[in-house]
Amino acid sequence: MDESIEEQDNLSQEMKEMILSLPRERGWRTPYLYLFQGFWCQPAEIQAISTFQNHFQAKKSDVFVATVPKSGTTWLKALTFAIINRQNHFISSKNHPLLSFNPHDLVPFIEYTVYGKHDKIPDLSNIQEPRLFGTHIPFDSLPNSIKDSNCKIVYICRNPFDTFISSWCFANKIKPPHLPTLNLEDAFEMYCNGSVGFGPFWNHMLGYWNESKERPKNVLFLKYEDMKEDVHFHLKKMAEFFNCPFTLEEENEGVVENIIKLCSFEKMKELEINKIGTFGRNFENKHLFRKGEIGDWTNHLSPSMVDKLSKVIEEKLGGSGLKFRMK
Ligand SMILES: Nc1ncnc2c1ncn2[C@@H]1O[C@H](COP(=O)(O)OS(=O)(=O)O)[C@@H](OP(=O)(O)O)[C@H]1O
């Protein structure tokens, strides 16, 4: 029995019973993860996702920032917000919202923020368009309203080695004190078996990868390593995808470069809001900015771990054409 579910007063009784009927595994920063609609998630997320699926009405101007956790969500939200709002929030303004808010506050998560209160179905109809939302939900579990609308989904994932290390470090930083530390070896087995938040990671990637091939005008598939290598190129690609390409004048004025600087790891990490602010009651923003590098996994994984995860990647993603730069 998962006593922690009984203690959660943000879950309805019906939801608790449904969740307790699902397969479960040890969690990373909660006692358990539950297998819901083919992916692993926390009880509160399941309730929020169900409400989202039952009530969300997409608009064709909506923009979703969809991501594998720990693969560049914060960065992609910042870039998306800056690009889309650059007419009403000038990039070089001292009052730019990204200087005083964390990107998760500007592009709210569906499963934590927007639908995070179980007794309230939010009225989203009056939010200024385009509405920006973030989510870790796999493509197959997005409501039909989104799939049938013409809205835009920008997706990012990252090489699984770095995603794993980032997830493991983050989980241990933000877990409640009563949960034991998750050691590297246990976390690694869980990750390779697919039991990680919103995993298995390969299904998550393949869902959006396949959709981006089918509907490239609606789903833009990005990789953290590619963004790091040439952020200028990808920023322009994003702006075109959102139907607001940079004009020559903007390019000449340095707007693209200024967005890159504003959203850079170094700049964001040093902002007051990201040093001392918190994401709700859940964690301190500073934990979202660790190293921001490609290849930190080489400092943590043994040769046999590298071999094992390489085999998982080859087995699950080998035929898809999806490849990653590892370092
Ligand atoms: N601006 C910017 N540029 C480049 N990289 C950045 C940026 N902001 C955060 N990061 C790095 O992204 C990792 C956190 O991933 P997410 O933002 O996806 O986390 S979360 O899912 O929203 O919790 C985490 O990676 P690691 O350092 O490897 O742990 C962050 O350091």
Question: Which tags fit this structure?
Answer:
327 residues, alpha/beta, Rossmann fold, 3-stranded antiparallel beta sheet, globular, binds 3'-phosphate-adenosine-5'-phosphate sulfate
Please name the CATH architecture: 3-Layer(aba) Sandwich
What binds here, in terms of ligands, is: 3'-phosphate-adenosine-5'-phosphate sulfate
Query: What form results from the Cα inertia axes?
Result: globular
Q: What kind of oligomer do you see? A: single chain
CATH fold title = Rossmann fold
Report low-confidence residues grouped into runs of 5 or more: none
Round the mean pLDDT to the nearest integer and report it.
95
Distance between the termini: 42 Å
- Total domain units: 1
- The CATH superfamily name is P-loop containing nucleotide triphosphate hydrolases
Structural class: alpha/beta
Quick one: biggest sheet? 4 strands, parallel
The amount of beta strand, in percent, is 5-15%
Give the total of beta strands: 9
Protein name: Sulfotransferase
InterPro entries: P-loop_NTPase, Sulfotransferase_dom
Keywords: Transferase
EC number: 2.8.2.-
Describe, in plain words, how this protein is organized in 3D:
With 327 residues, the chain is of the alpha/beta class. It has one domain: 3-Layer(aba) Sandwich (Rossmann fold), CATH 3.40.50.300. It contains 18 helices and nine strands. The chain has helices at residues 3-7, 13-20, 43-55, 73-84, 97-100, 103-106, 110-114, 144-148, 160-174, 184-193, 201-214, 224-229, 231-241, 248-253, 255-262, 265-270, 272-276, 303-317; strands at residues 24-26, 32-36, 39-41, 63-67, 132-135, 152-157, 219-223, 278-279, 283-284. The strands form three sheets. It has a four-stranded parallel beta sheet with strand order 5-4-6-7, with helices on both faces. It has a three-stranded antiparallel beta sheet with strand order 1-2-3, covered by helices on one side. The model has no long low-confidence stretch (mean pLDDT 95). Bound molecules: 3'-phosphate-adenosine-5'-phosphate sulfate (PPS). The site of 3'-phosphate-adenosine-5'-phosphate sulfate has 21 residues, from helix 4, helix 9 and helix 16. Belongs to the sulfotransferase 1 family.
